[in-house]
Amino acid sequence: MSEQPPSPSYRRADQDLEFLNREELRPVRLQLELLKPELIQREEGIRSTIVVFGSSRLVEPAVAREHLTKAEDSLALKPSDPDRQRAVAVARRRLALAPYYNQAREFGRLVSSTCQVGGRCDFVVMTGGGPGIMEAANRGAAEVGAKSIGLNITLPREQQPNPYVTPALCFQFRYFALRKMHFLLRARALVAFPGGFGTMDELFEALTLLQTGKVTGVTVVLVGRAFWDRLINWSMLIEEGLIGPEDLRLFHYAETGREAWETIAANHRVTSLA
To answer: CA 251 to CA 233: how far, in whole Å?
Structure first.
């Protein structure tokens, strides 16, 4: 008799990917996704973090100008096309917001050059690991030779981590819930630059945890007051009795990366500014 190949049931459970991906194994996958980044961060000496959120669609000003030029050239070929008209309008708005890329980059540089000294890894920049504002913050840290963290997520559309995340601290998540947990486990501050659904989701989760006392000691800074006040009607929430006036003390405003860092440093008594 010829020897039969072993049945899948013979595979060791920890080496059987088909088994590990079964619906019933979700609790095990959740535990693994909690443990792996936690253990690696311990091994890398990460003591505390600053989380930076913001749009993945905001690029540095030079690139934003190129995008606008291409959109305008396309519109010139067909001036009445509503889609091309909208593309130009969006490109103009993104160019107006593009300076925030440089501010996030400067923030990453300031924090990292101040706090990662003498082998210590305090206030390490942590982002979602993607492009845009996240890339800028990781880039600023990389430019001063510092570590930074990226928590990437598996999405239906292909997404690659930006090249500035420290390779040993670049993680891929399956579950948003565990990724969000890791954002706050070591966080001493959260800095939100202009962004869309993802930025608002992460910001409001953090504010809810602070409001309810589930998290304490985290400084929240919103960069670009005009953007945030246009986006969120805080006064209406107070007038409707849905939040209290004291809830507005859960966050601060800043206009630049340096101002954001100075606010955080003052709240946490970091005395040496780069």
So the answer is: 15
| CATH code for the structural domain at 35-59+98-267 | 3.40.50.450
| Dist. CA 177–CA 251, nearest whole Å | 23
In this structure, the dihedral spanned by the alpha carbons of residues 14, 19, 22 and 25, taken in order and rounded to 10 degrees, is -30
Predicted TM-score of the model (pTM): 0.93
244: alpha, beta or left, given left = phi > 0 and alpha = psi -120 to 50? beta
Main-chain dihedrals φ then ψ at residue 125, nearest 5 degrees = -65, 130
DSSP 90: H
Q: How far apart are CA 258 and CA 122, in angstroms?
A: 18
The span from the CA of 232 to the CA of 243, in Å, is 13
Q: Where in the chain is the domain with CATH 3.40.50.450?
A: 35-59+98-267
Question: Has residue 172 got a pLDDT over 70?
Answer: yes
- Which pLDDT value is given to residue 117? 86
Structure tokens at 208: 């809810």
* Mean pLDDT taken over the chain: 95
Burial class (CB in 10 A: 0-12, 13-18, 19+), 7: exposed
- 251 in Cβ contact with 191 (< 8 Å): no
Helices (DSSP H) in the chain: which residue ranges? 17-20, 26-43, 61-77, 82-97, 99-115, 133-143, 176-185, 197-211, 225-231, 234-239, 257-267
Q: Which amino acid is at 90?
A: V
Who has greater pLDDT, 160 or 207? 207
Cβ atoms < 10 Å from Cβ of 259 = 16
Burial (0-12, 13-18, 19+ Cβ within 10 Å), 264: buried
Other beta carbons within 10 angstroms of residue 174's beta carbon come to 15
